[in-house]
Amino acid sequence: MYEKNGEKYFIVDAHIALWDGRASNQKNIHGKQFIDCFYDYHKNLSPEEVVWDYDTYTYYGGQRLLKDLFEDGYVDHAIFQPAILSDFYVNGFGQTEDALALTRANPGKLTYNHAWDPRHAEAGLEQLRKDAARMNLQGVKLYTAEWYGDSRGWKLDDPWSRRYLEECLELGIKNIHVHKGPTIRPLDRDSFDVADIDKVATDYTELNFIVEHVGLPRLEDFCWIATQEPNVYGGLAVAMPFIHTRPGYFAQIIGELLYWIGEDRILFSSDYALWTPKWLVEAFVDFQIPAELTEYAPITVEQKKKILGLNAAALYGLDVPEELRLPAGTVSREEAVAS
Amino acid sequence: MIAVATSLQSAVVAALATVVDPELDQPITDLGFVRSIRIDPTGVTVHLRLPTSFCAPNFAYLMASDAVDALRRVPEVGKVTVLLDDHHDSDKINAGLAADAGYVGTFGSEAEQDLDELRRIFQRKAHTAAMERSVMALLRSTGTTVEQLPGLTLGQLPGGSHKEALLRRRTAIGLGIRPDDLVLVGDDGVPVPAEAIPMRLRFAKAVRISVEGNAHFCRGLLATRYDNEPGGLITDTRRTT
Questions:
Q1: What is the ipTM for the molecules in this complex?
Q2: CB of A86 within 8 A of CB of A124?
């Protein structure tokens, strides 16, 4: 919980990781290149006083995570969104068992989402059923650009992917987080293309599709799709830290998102440990759209409360203390439309 | 800016300045992607660099091969060598460039078709963003209203950098640049219906913000990655002045 000027905010960090990028876990040069690239993101977009040293960054462990999120970072609840990257790391990049153990040891504070890859076909479906039971899955994190043998990526509307989505429906896994990221190897098409989300969001209306990084660097394509598909959400991972380095650009991103998809479908996250939540939460609560951007309305306290936690709490059925909810009688835009 | 001392140096830099990052819609010389230029009696060697090891290899290849093509058009340049540094696919891309293998030839079974369609996607985005910049500048600086936009022609746009940029991008996607050509057209040249103009401009704005934001991000990452090491250092052993 974060409190400022008499307002209390319930904080859900909707995208965190517990990774091991140390040399001892790197399978090949790409493992090093990957964590180095993350570290450059971290260094470039963090305020100087919160930049970590490289060794800490490659591996920080569960206790550090708990401190950064829950002791220092105002976070009430956080959701693991792992990137497995088994072609780059001996024991994977995201540390599944450690994250799961941490989740069990801190009931009510952490949610563990896992991953699936439709290229594992039938065997992967069986694994998904087992994972769903063992990990109590409510969501998954999908990474469509990951290597797998000769394949350089996949699409959500591929036939096998559809079977996995149908299995998610069966298993009650409702939140499908999708990372649209750089391909590691060339594809002829644009690897950030979000068009496949449009197709599956139309076909599986009971699933929620949370597009991480709000589709950046294809913000406009994401917004366009999200306006037409009510079950598409935008995760602010990677977009958040612009609030420090590029506040004008951050204002435009938020202004565009509020215009196109509205305040009920935007989710805060620090993308820990790319960045840490403390300074992001503080900055976002203090943030205002600059007056010179006259085309956007000022952002309200209520909108900030939704973005910082209430929207994610609704998706994951989290219990929000009475005093941190919006006052009774406040209806969201969509509820207002529906009623 | 890259400092030049001879006409060959300036011709080489000018050639590189025609190479654009398709996604950011800015010249690689402005973005700092040109790491070094070496001119010797037999030719020119250019090293390129990118903000991360994982910048999409298709775009990386596109810029590097465009640089080769642009440099080869410089008179008296000699042998052209372009090398991409510090990329996860540097070896493969550099070997492909040296052998003139083309994109498909360079990446073999990993590539299915050439990059023309990918390039067109971003040329269309660049046109959309340039159109928005021109129209918004007009709305801000003159009494023109949104209602007057349906008949707006290129000839009615004030001259300047926005208009020049728009004309270049229209040319790139095959649209006309005559003074009586309409400004508000789709990527296919079909006029945007009057009632659709406000939404078209609104979407175009999102496109522009996206493109500009990516450029901010990439510039910042490049500076961090190379610890603010300036690019564009020229060494010239052919210099006669």
A1: 0.82
A2: no
